[in-house]
Amino acid sequence: MYDVGLAHYLLVSTLVFAAGVATMTLKRNAIGVLIGVELVLNAASINFVAFGHYRAGGLDGQIAAVFVIVLAAAEAAVALAIFLNFYALHATVDVDRGDNLKG
Amino acid sequence: MADVYVPWPQPRAKEFRGPSRAAARAAVSAYRAGAPWVRKHPALVFFALLAGGCLAAWGVQFLCQEYVRVEQRLLLTARAQPGQWLTLEQLAAGAVEVRAAVPAVLLYPLQMLVVRDALGLLGIITFVSILAMFAIWLERKVAGWIQSRIGPMRVGGWHGWSQSLADGIKLIAKEDLIPAGADRMLYRLAPYINFVPALMGFVALPFGVYWVFRNLDVGLLFILAMLGLEVIGVLLAGWASNNKWSVFGALREAAQVVAYEIPMGMSLLIPIMVAGTLQLTGEDSVMARQAGGWFNWLAWHSPWTFVAMFTYFIASLAACKRAPFDLPEAESELVAGFHTEYSGFRWSLFFFAEYAAMFIVSGILVLLFLGGWDAPWVGLAPAAWGEPHAPLGAQLLYGVIFSGPFWFILKAMLLVYLQMWLRWTLPRLRIDQVLFSCVQVILPLTMIVLLASVFWELALGSSAAFRVFSQVVSFVLALVGAVIAVAIVLVALAGLRQRRALVGTMGVERPLPGG
Amino acid sequence: MSERIRLALIGLAVLVAVTLMGLAALLSSRPLEAFAFSVFAGALVTSALAIVLTRDIVRSAMWLMGALSSAAGLYFLLGANFLGVVQLIVYAGGILVLIVFGVMLTGRSPFLRFDPRPAETALAALVGVLLFAAFSAVLLGSAWPPLPGAVPVRQAATVREIGRALLTDYLLPFEVVSVLLLAVMIGAAYLARPVRR
Questions:
Q1: Are B180 and B276 in the same domain?
Q2: CB-based contact (8 Å) between A64 and chain C?
Q3: How far is C73 from chain B (nearest CA, A)?
């Protein structure tokens, strides 16, 4: 007998969060790191919605998640612009190469 | 076979075995049985199939609707709980009470949601297949007529009506190539990522009051999301092909679609703002707002919705990569762009997706601006004819003459025809021109129109004099719209009549020999 | 032939997993919801793990699409229709296209290798496993009763309610976010301008 509850959603989002952090640690491609960040943000917004649905009620969780999505879009746009500049300077997007202060 | 030149060792032709052999046998014998009929009366067969298909769709939908009525009656009188399995006696009693036109035995299997959903999905898939095949045939005919050719004429007899069917069989039997160095998994996956969202778009697209698979409260946004997802399939196809032309096509597609999504969404915001809902059908919906015929359609609600209709149409051309925005597959520069390397069934999936997307964007335009499934003269209809418990004859008349999926498909196909017309008339833009026209022309225009529309709605709410003025404006716009619509249809018909004549500097007085 | 066998194995594994999920869902009091949850959650977890394990960046991006779509599915299950659709439009239709676009502009040179060193792999595995273990220990060890003043859960909040909430209760964050978006737009355009030499 099992019914889907808050704990199930939290467990899933924890796993996604851990996978996101591991991606950020593992990938040397800057875009891979960005993908890891997106995973982490998704885990957070799943938590928001699940808590909103099972615990707090109302719209708070959903609206927090909407803001998370908007921030993720903003972050992705700026990050990609930075990566393109980085690529123009270093001819690679390997984050380990970004260790000099003046390009 | 000894005297045939064979350049390299040929593999033995594949033989069908087992069930596929039986299916092929059955198909061949069905063809042998049906071919004489088709040869003798091609047009008759074509129209009989069309009418039969419509009747079958209506019958299934009618059954589902009758079941829902009976169930609602039983729930209302508290003789059944939600989720409870109904017995035949209960159903029969309910059917008698609501005067259902079908026996309870037929309704019995429909009480499983899975059965109704499967029927609906089957309907959607059938519709999309027929639509794509018909639209491809129509595109070839239109291209031919515009270029003073005749297009496909042989297969099936009457104007080559089953050309696409023959092409489909050819495509399925073709060799499925994967280029060397391609990412094989992604290459296989890409057409499905392109096709499935196009199919999913139909899940929320209503064809009539009850003719919708899922009436979501965010229906319009859902359809837009599905149109946006389609891009990823194209991107992936271009990347996985390991071909520089394909990658260029994919890059152009990404830049173009992401850019044009913004004016497209903003143009749709204007009718949405007027109607005040994102739901497409139902009590509180865009369609309920437009009830009552031609003069109530949102296209002529204000000058701003009128402009928004045109900006949406232009942006929708770019969104489903139709000419003059067909840069992702520009055949003169990029061979065929993102689908250069594809062949066979996967290649045909891209085309199914493209024509499905064309129908969906046209359907959105029809729903939001042009009154959806209502005929222009729907206001003249007796109100009782459209009710679910009206006599079947009245319902049939109402559906054909006044309001129903027939009208929705007719209007949407007219817009699809318009897209084809533009494709074979206009030259292709350059990519910088495409982005310039989006970012510096259409986007500012839609922003101004959106802002102006906000103030227009505010003024409508506050001043009675302005309301009168707005009604006059809307009346004039409706007349202008009528003139434009009639002109489009007349020009199209004139072109159809003179399709055999050569035009331009090649023009001659007499029609072509044989015409 | 080996590729065909691999495809068949993948198909078989998916089939078995879905069947098991369906059987498990029959044990629950609301089987349809339980089944949908296990499908979406399974897809989400698979995609998240695949993102970590895949070397190819385009494949990672594709798995990200799987993860985003299944997260949208979870939102639909939680009654957040609007949020699910926004997730599909903004994330899958916008951000993901941007990411793949970025990959195409910067990737695939034979001289670029992004393979992690063994130490990095070990570190990433350690971090991931530790985080997951710690968090799940915390959340499994505590109960989550509904808050005392909680509004009863609506089946699906309509778009109208969300819009009203955004323009009344959440007006300040809404405005702040819109200013942020403006700043981001200007910043990204400035960063991506053609370089004068």
A1: yes
A2: no
A3: 12
Residue C144 lies in a domain: no
B272 touches C at CB < 8 Å? no
Please count the residue pairs, one from chain B and one from chain C, whose beta carbons lie less than 8 angstroms apart: 84
Range of the domain at B30: 23-111
Of residues A14, A23, A80, nearest to C98 (C-beta): A80
Separation of alpha carbons B110 and B113, rounded Å: 7
Q: Return the structure tokens found at B310.
A: 């045109």
DSSP B294: G
| pLDDT at site B451 | 92
Question: Any chain C CB within 8 A of the CB of A101?
Answer: no
B274: closest CA of chain C, how far (Å): 14
Out of B184, B224, B236, the one facing C89 most closely (by C-beta) is: B224
| Nearest-CA distance C15 → chain B (Å) | 18
Q: Which residue of C has its CA nearest to B184?
A: C3
- The answer to whether residue B326 is domain-embedded is yes
Q: Cβ of A37 under 8 Å from any chain C Cβ?
A: no
- How big is chain A, counted in residues? 103
DSSP state at residue C157? -
Q: Encoding tokens for residue B140?
A: 């070839």
pLDDT digits (tens, 9 = 90+) for B151-196: 888 776 777 777 888 888 888 878 778 888 777 888 888 899 899 9
> Which tokens sit at C58?
């385009």
Amino acid at site A14: T
Number of domains making up chain C: 2
Does B102 share its domain with B186? no
Q: What is the C-alpha separation between C21 and C14, in angstroms, rounded?
A: 10
Does the structure's ipTM exceed the value 0.90?
no
Cβ contact B229–C92 (<8 Å) = yes
pLDDT confidence of B291, banded at 50, 70, 90? confident
If asked whether residues B93 and B193 sit together in one domain, one would say no
Amino acid at A57: G
How many domains would you assign to chain B?
2
Range of the domain at C187: 157-197
Residues 6+ apart with CB under 8 A from A41: A68, A71, A72
Tens of pLDDT, residue by residue over B85-109, are 777 777 777 777 776 667 767 777 7
Residue whose entry in the numeric block shows the structure tokens 């976010």: C177
In the predicted model, is pLDDT for residue B353 greater than 80? yes
Q: Per-residue pLDDT averaged across C70-75, rounded?
A: 91
Look at phi and psi of residue B83 and say left if phi exceeds 0, alpha if psi is from -120 to 50, else beta. left
Flag if C74 and A1 touch (Cβ within 8 Å).
no
Contact C97 B231 (CB under 8 A): yes
Measure the CA–CA gap between C142 and C160, rounded to whole angstroms.
35
Structure tokens of B398? 């109402």
Distance from CA of C133 to the nearest CA of B (A): 33
Cα–chain center distance at B473 = 32
Distance in angstroms (rounded) separating the CA atoms of residues A66 and A60: 10
Tokens of B154: 């042989």
Q: Which pLDDT value is given to residue B207?
A: 86
What is the length of chain B?
515
Is there a domain that residue B510 lies in? no
Comparing alpha-carbon positions, the chain C residue that sits nearest to B190 is C62
List CB contacts of B143: < 8 A, sequence separation 6 or more.
B149, B151, B420, B424
Decide if B189 contacts C10 (C-beta within 8 A): no
Q: Does C25 map to a domain?
A: yes
Residues 6+ positions from B166 with CB-CB distance below 8 Å: B155
Residue B449: pLDDT above 90?
yes
Contacts of A29 in chain C (CB under 8 A): 57, 107, 114
In tens, the pLDDT along B356-381 reads 999 999 999 998 888 888 888 877 77
The residue assigned the tokens 């594994």 is C13
Task: Fill in the amino acid letter for B94.
Answer: G
Does C34 contact A3 at a Cβ distance shorter than 8 Å?
A: yes
Q: Does a structural domain hold residue C63? A: yes
